[in-house]
Specification:
Elements lengths: L5 H9 L3 H6 L6 H15 L6 E5 L5 H8 L3 E5 L3 H13 L5 E3 L12 E7 L9 H9 L1 E12 L6 H8 L11 E4 L4 E4 L2 H10 L3 E6 L5 H5 L7 H4 L3 E7 L2
Parallel strand pairs: 1-2, 1-4, 2-3, 4-5
Antiparallel strand pairs: 5-9, 6-7, 8-9
Helix pairs in contact: 1-5
Organism: Catellatospora citrea
GO biological process, one term: methylation
Protein name: Methyltransferase
């Protein structure tokens, strides 16, 4: 596996073309709208008046959703193009979101938070464990940490299903990179994330593996029916001890 550094990964994601950012839906792509967002928002519960850190806020779509639900949001994003886009959207339509450009592994002191969300972020960080530690450290005692990842068991679900009509997995226990059009993610076994979480003294509240509603799959992109049968995403909610 290529020896990626955090800086190299940040530069790669941070060079996302403007045209790609402009075409993103305000509430995320199809999978986020129908699989990730509903469960994530349910896990967070009522966020009105709560301080929420959007760790790895990307283009800011989740920060905006949380702010519109009454949260006091701080979004942290290291990638230049993503950060600039989020700040621009906040300038165009202020929601009270504060954006900070920083590496999650070197998080500045932003005060304590009632909840920290790291959605689809940890797999994009080569040296990811310091980022999880920073997220948990930013929580007030008893605060809620929610993270989402592509399910380590089924992260290649869509292409495998389209090619074979079933899911095939190999090298589950290894760590390896998964090239994407605008960045790189890193496969890690599920136990890697959960053991780190336990080591930080967090109390597990819930693990979710959402499946797609068959009726939604019928009107979705070709091949999306795979998400009806197997979970492409994993969501974890835990409390700081």
């Amino acid at each position: 596996m290529t020896q990626w550094t955090n800086d190299a990964a940040i530069r790669r994601w941070g060079a996302m073309p403007r045209v790609v950012l402009e075409t993103m839906e305000q509430d995320g792509d199809f999978a986020k709208r129908h699989l990730v967002n509903p469960v994530l928002l349910r896990m967070l519960g009522d966020v009105r008046g709560r301080r929420v850190l959007d760790a790895g806020s990307g283009n800011g779509y989740l920060s905006r959703m949380l702010a519109e639900r009454g949260a006091q949001v701080v979004g942290v994003e290291p990638g230049q193009a993503l950060f600039d886009f989020a700040v621009e959207k906040e300038t165009e339509q202020p929601r009270g979101i504060r954006y900070v450009q920083a590496d999650l592994c070197d998080l500045p002191d932003l005060g304590s938070f009632d909840a920290v969300v790291a959605s689809m972020v940890l797999p994009a960080i080569p040296d990811w464990a310091p980022a999880m530690r920073a997220c948990v450290s930013a929580l007030a005692p008893g605060g809620l940490f929610v993270f989402t990842v592509n399910h380590p068991c089924f992260e290649q679900l869509w292409p495998s299903w389209r090619e074979h009509g079933e899911y095939r997995t190999r090298r589950y226990l290894a760590e390896y990179e998964i090239e994407g059009p605008h960045g790189v993610d890193f496969h890690r076994p599920l136990s890697t994330y959960l053991n780190e979480l336990a080591g930080l003294g967090c109390r597990l509240r819930e693990i979710a593996e959402p499946g797609l509603d068959p009726a939604v799959a019928e009107v979705g992109p070709e091949g999306i029916d795979a998400y009806v049968h197997l979970p492409n995403f994993l969501l974890v909610a835990a409390e700081r001890g």
